[in-house]
Specification:
Blueprint (H helix, E strand, L loop, with lengths): L2 H11 L2 H31 L3 H37 L3 H36 L6 H13 L1 H16 L3 H25 L3 H27 L8 H4 L4 H36 L1 H17 L1 H19 L3 H28 L1 H7 L10 H11 L2 H17 L3 H26 L3 H47 L1
Helix pairs in contact: 2-7, 2-12, 3-4, 3-5, 3-6, 3-10, 3-12, 4-5, 4-6, 5-8, 6-7, 6-8, 7-8, 10-11, 10-17, 11-15, 12-13, 12-16, 13-15, 13-16, 13-18, 14-15, 16-17, 16-18, 17-18
Length: 468
């Protein structure tokens, strides 16, 4: 093993505070890069006209669902590999990573075939209309290359699982920068239009996979060894353990999409379609502000997995509490920035005569929803602890309770039943998030407490056996 490999493993098996800080920062950078290249994609395609931009809008939700599956598979692999590293089981840790790679190929092939068959009917059902030709040209290239995107998510998770966040970030940076460069070349210089945008995205993601594949199978300087002949042995338990986190993680993304639809319906009932536009714009700002929190939460999966695998309940407890404290401190800063600059932020979304009327409402929405980032840490960090220890269902229950049930109920009661209107819907979303998050927090604390008792009992039993 190289010095760097030892250093990465020492970080994730050592002080949880240091590990969370070290792992979260590169993840934040990665997410900002993803936002940047998605934005650049939209800007370049917009030059082809509104139909082309709308076509991407129809394809993107379908694409994100499948990418969510890849990311969910990555989360499952991350959790399982980290647990085996914590348990000092090198062979099973390597085998788990190899299983994730094989599963990514199987899932990609299955869903590529399905999507190429049902893509056109789905787009018609979604109302693509005049944009159907554009959407098909873009979608066929993207879904035909699905394996690239799913493998990329799994490979990144493999690096994260052993604390190698820098190279996971480098791979995403390659994708982002290359896509920004290739977009105008393929779309306009090569005159490929919307297909050029799709090919630019695919080629960029492919290069990322090539880079990570080089590190994994050619340079072979990771802590774990991904030699199929040496370590791969099909194991149903590994598959089940991976999907116990992967499936709930994927469903959580679907739940968030469902919540957005529900909230939009309520806003239309309260005030009309402009309220939806205001909410959509303000939540984009909130989602940007949540990137640091998601970075911290992603780091928690690895830290919790290693602690659980090594039966180190103290690190599990410390990692959970510290991630919430750190997340809350970051949230206070971000929330304050959103409130202070709410008018300036609102102007960025209402600078034309057609959208100027939204400015006052948007500034108000941003001010209220800035509190959302304060309500997030308790729930999201607790969910990630459960994912880290392999209890994905627990994480899913927290998300369902917080987002789909409590946020919807509070928003409906305050906004519709009590007649508080749009502000009531906003406040309901905040209250639902906070109450659901606190329930998740209490559940995670109880789980950690019971796990600590179990570990202490195991130690007592071992001491008694040694004495005898």
């Amino acid at each position: 093993m190289t010095k760097q490999k030892n250093k990465n493993i020492e970080v994730i098996t050592g002080d949880p505070k240091k590990a969370i800080r070290k792992l979260s920062v590169p993840m934040m950078v990665s997410m900002f890069l993803i936002v940047l290249y998605n934005l650049a994609d939209s800007v370049w395609v917009a030059g082809l006209g509104s139909d082309a931009l709308a076509a991407i809008g129809f394809v993107t939700p379908l694409f994100m669902i499948l990418i969510g599956l890849g990311n969910g598979l990555g989360a499952g692999a991350n959790s399982l590999i980290a647990r085996y590293i914590g348990a000092d089981d090198y062979g099973q840790a390597s085998n788990s990573g190899l299983h994730a790679i094989v599963l990514s190929i199987i899932i990609s092939v299955i869903f590529t075939i399905i999507m190429l068959i049902v893509l056109k009917p789905l787009l018609i059902i979604m109302g693509a209309g005049n944009t159907i030709d554009y959407a098909m040209k873009y979608g066929i290239v993207i879904f035909g290359s699905l394996i690239v995107f799913v493998f990329s998510g799994v490979a990144s998770a493999i690096f994260r699982s052993e604390g190698d966040m820098k190279r996971a970030t480098y791979a995403i940076a390659v994708t982002a920068i290359l896509n920004i460069i290739l977009d105008p070349i393929f779309i306009y210089y090569l005159n490929l239009g919307i297909e050029g945008a799709a090919w630019a995205t695919v080629i960029s993601a492919t290069l990322s996979c090539v880079v990570m594949g080089y590190w994994i199978w050619v340079k072979r300087d990771l802590y774990l060894d991904y030699n199929f002949k040496k370590y791969f042995k099909w194991n149903n338990k590994i598959v089940i353990d991976t999907f116990q986190v992967a499936i709930p993680s994927t469903l959580e993304n679907l739940i968030m999409s469902g919540l957005a639809i529900i909230i939009n319906i309520m806003l239309v009932m309260c005030s009309g379609t402009q309220a939806v536009a205001v909410y959509t714009a303000s939540m984009r700002i909130v989602q940007m502000a949540m990137i640091p929190l998601i970075g911290i939460a992603t780091a928690v999966i690895t830290v919790a997995g290693v602690a659980y695998g090594s039966h180190n309940y103290k690190n599990l407890k410390l990692g959970h509490s510290y991630s919430i404290k750190l997340g809350f401190a970051v949230s206070i800063i971000l929330g304050a920035i959103m409130v202070i600059f709410s008018k300036q932020i609102a102007y960025a979304f209402s600078y034309t005569s057609a959208s100027a009327a939204m400015a006052p409402e948007l500034a108000t929405a941003i001010s209220i929803l800035s509190l959302f980032v304060l309500a997030i840490p308790f729930g999201i960090m607790s969910s990630m602890v459960f994912q880290g220890v392999g209890k994905g269902i627990n994480s899913l229950v927290i998300t369902v309770l917080r987002s789909l049930i409590l946020e919807s109920i509070f928003a409906y009661v305050l906004g519709i039943v009590l007649g508080w209107g749009v502000s009531g819907v906003y406040i309901g979303v905040l209250l639902g998030c906070f109450v659901g998050g606190m329930v998740g927090y209490a559940w995670a604390k109880t789980f950690i407490k019971n796990y600590a008792k179990k570990c202490k009992d195991m130690l007592k039993s071992e001491d008694t056996t040694i004495q005898q």
